[in-house]
Design goal:
The protein is mainly beta. 0% of the residues lie in helices and 50% in strands. The radius of gyration is 14 Å and the shape is globular.
Length: 127
């Protein structure tokens, strides 16, 4: 089992920045891809971005490309989501997720691919 715990959410004004963290514990060797998803009230959960084990491969949703950056510190078993130029439409609960990809550097956009999920952290962007 792998446990994921997010932190760093909060309230920020439009144009501001936040950095989310996702700390992994347990059998971390059983996963290699980590990603962030988000779910706004009344909407489906959507893919935000993902990162491969080495960090050499990243993938982003078009809506956040150029504004959000994913990184990881494998020594600390932590994945980060740096969010800049935040917009009110970025308001959502953000979830960290992880799974074991059998394809090198392949990052799935599908939530059903992910075996482990955090509890989520709320991000609210005011206009």
């Amino acid at each position: 089992q792998v446990q994921l715990v997010e932190s760093g959410g909060g309230l920020v004004q439009a144009g501001g920045s936040l950095r989310l963290s996702c700390a992994a514990s347990g059998r971390t060797s059983s996963v290699n891809v980590a990603a962030w998803f988000r779910q706004a009230p009344g909407k489906e959960r959507t893919f935000v971005g993902g990162i491969s084990t080495s960090g050499s491969s990243t993938l982003y949703a078009d809506s956040v490309k150029g504004r959000f950056t994913i990184s990881r510190d494998n020594a600390q078993n932590t994945v980060y989501l740096q969010m800049n130029s935040l917009k009110p439409e970025d308001t959502a609960v953000y979830y960290c997720a992880a799974y074991k990809s059998s394809l090198a550097n392949f990052i799935s956009r599908r939530g059903s691919s992910y075996d482990y999920w955090g509890q989520g952290t709320q991000v609210t962007v005011s206009s």
